[in-house]
Amino acid sequence: VALEPNVHMHERLRVRAAEAGFTEADGTLLVLPYGAEDISSITAALTDWATKFSIPSSKSLKLPSPSSSTAGTTTESGNIPGETSAFVIDTIVCILTLCSVPDPSSSLRALVTHTLKPGGQLLFYEHVRSPDPQVARAQDLLRPIWAAAFGGCRLGVEGVKAVREAGADPNHASDEN
Q1: Which pTM value belongs to this model?
Q2: Burial class of 63 by CB neighbour count within 10 A (0 to 12, 13 to 18, 19+)
């Protein structure tokens, strides 16, 4: 499953995936035009995809609406209050994307809470804010120009911090990438 809001990248994703043996026709690939923050559309598309290709779910989750105050909470039975979705992802891979997500911590929290199965993993390689104050200042100054030139990529986003705030366990996370 690939989340790519830039539809101009979809064909390239499909070609690269096909080279590795994954296609939408056989249900081994799903390319979604949503940003990570659009959890309702993501879960709806995953549920439709799982149903269409008879992909078994490992657990049924209860999904709240994105504005729900219960987001990230569970009931005594371990379910999240709200709507039902029957699809759960084993692994989320996030590569140089948090820099373009409006609220990376919140979006990751929603993905981890609502789509990642218990015991699943979040793998990430992200930009980071420099610990050097002068470099961090340069990142701040260049951010608007950089974002305009590179599709919304914002320099200096604290990717590792976003993963921690999302409640994921960034084992061996490094602030040096």
Answers
A1: 0.67
A2: buried
Question: Could you give the CA distance from residue 100 to residue 157 in angstroms, rounded to a whole number?
Answer: 9
Q: Amino acid identity of 49?
A: W
Work out the angle at residue 64's Cα, subtended by the Cα atoms of residues 60 and 66, and round it to the nearest 5 degrees. 135
Residues 119-143 have pLDDT tens digits of: 888 888 888 899 999 999 999 999 9
Amino acid at 147: A
Q: Which is it for the CA torsion 167, 171, 175, 177, positive or negative?
A: negative
Q: What whole-number distance in Å separates Cα of residue 28 and Cα of residue 14?
A: 11
Listed in sequence order, the residues at least 6 apart from 121 whose beta carbon sits closer than 8 Å to its beta carbon are 90, 91, 92
